[in-house]
Design brief:
The chain is mostly beta strands. The protein folds into 4 domains: 101 residues, no CATH class; 176 residues, Immunoglobulin-like (Sandwich); 120 residues, Immunoglobulin-like (Sandwich), CATH 2.60.40; 119 residues, Gamma-adaptin ear (GAE) domain (Immunoglobulin-like), CATH 2.60.40. It has 10 helices and 45 strands. Strands 19, 20, 23, 26, 27, 28, 29, 30 and 33 form a 9-stranded mixed β-sheet that branches. The protein has an 8-stranded mixed β-sheet with strand order 35-34-31-32-43-38-37-36. Strand 13 and strand 14 form a beta hairpin. The longest helix is centred in the first third of the chain and has 13 residues.
Length: 736
């Protein structure tokens, strides 16, 4: 999910800049010739310079392993990329003290690592708006920033040298000034209106930068406006930071009818490979006191060119190609469609022709006609639905040459639909992403293409067919999986978003959490899953994944519970029964006043949990307890070594735990343990783990680490979330 998510892809191009694939020169020479190459270590593997701009650099490193990624991450940390760090097992983002921002991602299935770095934003003396609307909003204490837009009825600007505490003090001042109507507030974000209807939006962007935006009451965005396919070319000062909520229409920030602002990118998971183009995530010039508060969500840019490579984490339903062949018994194969031009815009026509049925699947054919003047690639999958249920079905990717037609087919297996209680197709909705085949930074989304069948009028849309399939075990019949637990007692219903049912599904040794969401609002929403906990233990600290739900649709999203905790740690924790799964839901709404965060706890068993949190206490002071849980072999060859600690925070404040990378040792020999800095909320217990790779063990002449390692030493560094020191202490763990 990183979550990273996922964010708006904004193309920042300058006439003097160049982007492209580099040649086959030495890696050092390649990096040294780039504008920002001296700000990062040289990546491993076969590297290509994807994009080289004055304020942005992207480098891909192919033929790399997870070990390469972790070793490179440690090098980046040594170079100072530790400020406001956010990380998962394959994603890391942080600033250095100069204000450069690093984004580092690893894609195991592709054996590829992507490194991106942003230059600091150049700040200047802030010019506070002198208009009437400028007088409505209190002036912040900081006098440095960057003006983006200033008009008679609205303004937008960046303010530097403002940490999160100062932002919250500023929010208080703005509320005192009257922005208290329909307000919504979190630690890093505020939206509220005054009596005249002006809407104020404040947000913490990172590295002590906030954004201040005031919109007039007359500002409105049509919800059915099509997305343009004009080139997405803009400069940094013309951009606004957009929350990562997908939309099917242009954003409202550009008031010039002859230009186009970028559209928001639909997102499904944070594991998508970022492209070479930068996001609009602002960076800043260095300030005197960088904070350490993690960003609200990962800022890795989502892929702009979809590929058929599946993501590591399923985002909706398991694969739509069944392993067994059911009969068509029970599935309505008599429905037909009328051949209709379903989409006709921007020189593109899409016509759905017919549905054909076999004993195990149905195939629908459609014709794409491209008269746009350029070759186009068409992609469809993540935003499709049947009978109001969103599925990753009808996957399609095809390039259609300008002036040509293509007759295409897509197959849907009955087994997948019937496992969710769907025994007929009454309507289908498809959204295609259309990309210029020569310039994949230039794309648009079609409006929803609705295909209705002959049973549309008789289909009963009032029935929750998915819940019915769970209750009567239809799901088990067609999926081959076991329903370990199911409940339709809603645990969330807010701002039109309802989490109406949840299930724990067993498939062999794997466990999956199925979450049924319904979006009853009129705009798309993106849901992020953060800080996922198994009973009392936070198994995934930070953003796990995201999912997008279109208006008036239902989506069943899947979290692979078995992936939350390493196999070796499961044995050490002696997990046999899970009673609850908790998480922080981060819901981004197209209407910025309706965003919210809410922590939920989902029961998944009637039995008590069996998690063993005991171990060797290596630190117990300042309200923080660190327990050494043990070690386990890992990796495909089981030759790497994972080291596990459990950190419990009862200090009354959020803390950050880290270790000195030059102060760790194994059996008296200096060796990094691969431990990352981790944030721990008050009253939380989290996993703090590191990995020592087989190559490092070989250098230490260790062939059987579980038997031969007798001593581990490390420095435990504790700070608060703003990097104020709490304690620093060397600890030694005797294993023999």
């Amino acid at each position: 999910m990183k979550k990273i998510g996922l964010l708006l892809l904004c193309v920042v191009l300058f006439l003097t800049s160049s982007c492209g694939t580099a040649g086959s020169k030495k890696k050092n020479d390649l990096l040294n010739k780039t504008k920002l190459g001296n700000t990062i270590p040289v990546p491993p593997g076969n590297i290509n310079i994807e994009c080289d701009l004055d304020n942005y650099l992207s480098v891909s490193a192919k033929n790399t392993s997870l070990g390469d990624y972790n070793n490179y991450l440690n090098e980046c940390i040594k170079r100072g990329y530790t400020v406001e760090a956010d990380n998962t097992s394959s994603y890391y983002s942080a600033y250095n003290s100069q204000g450069n921002k690093l984004l580092l991602s690893f894609y195991e299935s592709l054996e590829e690592m992507v490194v991106a770095v942003y230059a600091p934003m150049e700040m200047e003396t802030l010019r506070w708006p002198k208009s009437k609307v400028g007088q409505m909003v209190p002036k912040p204490d900081s006098e440095i920033g960057k003006n983006v837009r200033d008009s008679s009825d609205s303004f937008y600007l960046y303010v530097g040298d403002t940490d999160i505490d100062e932002l919250n003090n500023y929010i208080d001042k703005c509320m005192d000034a009257g922005f208290v109507i329909d307000y919504n507030r979190t630690k890093e974000r505020f939206v509220g209106k005054n009596e005249e209807g002006y809407q104020l939006t404040l947000r913490y962007e990172g590295f002590e930068i906030i954004t201040v935006k005031l919109d007039s009451p007359n500002k409105s965005v049509p919800t059915d406006a099509p997305v343009t396919d004009e080139p997405l070319i803009t400069t940094p000062v013309e951009q606004e930071t957009i929350v990562p909520v997908p939309t099917l229409q242009p954003t409202e920030t550009n008031t010039d009818p002859n230009t186009v602002t970028p559209t928001k990118e639909p997102s499904t998971t944070v594991t998508n490979r970022p492209t070479a183009t930068p996001t609009n995530q602002p960076t800043a010039t260095p300030t005197n006191r960088p904070t350490a508060t993690p960003t609200k969500r990962p800022t890795a840019t989502p892929t702009n060119r979809p590929t058929p490579t599946p993501t590591k984490r399923p985002t909706a339903t398991p694969t739509n190609r069944p392993t067994a062949t059911p009969s068509s018994g029970g599935f309505n194969t008599n429905n037909t469609i009328t051949k209709t031009v379903n989409y006709d815009d921007k020189g593109v026509k899409i016509t759905f022709n017919e549905i054909q049925y076999s004993s195990t699947y149905c195939t629908f054919s459609f014709t794409i006609e491209n008269n746009s003047g350029k070759d186009l690639e068409f992609y469809s999958k993540d935003l499709n639905s049947i009978n109001g249920y969103m599925f990753n079905i009808g996957w399609y990717s095809k390039t259609v040459t300008n002036g040509k037609k293509a007759i295409e087919k897509s197959t849907i297996y009955y087994k997948e639909l019937m496992s969710y209680g769907i025994n007929e197709i009454a309507d289908m909705a498809f959204i295609f992403k259309v990309t210029d085949d020569d310039d994949w930074q230039n794309y648009f989304y079609t409006s929803p293409i609705i295909v209705e069948t002959s049973s549309k009028k008789t289909h009963d849309y009032s029935v929750d067919y998915y819940q019915k399939a769970m209750k009567d075990k239809t799901y088990e019949k067609y999926s081959g999986k076991d329903i370990g637990y199911f409940s339709n007692k809603a645990v969330l219903e807010r701002n039109g978003i309802k989490l109406s049912s949840y299930s724990l599904i067993n498939s062999g040794t794997y466990k999956y959490l199925y979450l049924e969401f319904t979006n009853n609002s009129d705009v798309p929403v993106t849901i992020g899953y953060r800080d996922i906990a198994i009973d009392s233990l936070v198994a995934s600290n930070g953003l796990w994944s995201t999912a997008t739900i279109l208006p008036h649709k239902t989506m069943v999203d899947v979290i692979t519970v078995s992936s939350l905790i390493d196999e070796g740690l499961i044995d050490l924790l002696k997990i046999n029964e899970i009673s609850t799964i908790g998480m922080l839901l981060d819901v981004d709404h197209e209407d910025e006043s309706d965003f919210f965060e809410e922590r939920i706890s989902i029961p998944v068993s009637n039995n008590p949990s069996t998690i063993d949190l005991s171990g060797k206490t290596v630190y117990d002071d300042n309200g923080v307890k660190v327990v050494f849980k043990g070690m386990a072999l890992s990796g495909y060859s089981k030759k790497d070594l994972d080291i596990y600690f459990l950190v419990t925070n009862n200090s009354g404040r959020k803390i950050r735990i880290d270790t000195g990378y030059n102060d760790s040792s194994i059996n008296g020999y200096m060796q990094s343990l691969g431990l990352w800095s981790t944030y721990v909320d008050n009253n939380q217990t989290v996993i703090w783990d590191g990995r020592v790779y087989s190559s490092s063990l070989e250098d230490l002449n260790i062939s059987n680490p579980l038997e031969e390692i007798t001593e581990i030493e490390l420095e435990i560094e504790l700070t608060d979330e703003h990097y104020h020191d709490i304690d620093s202490r060397m600890v030694k763990i005797k294993l023999r």
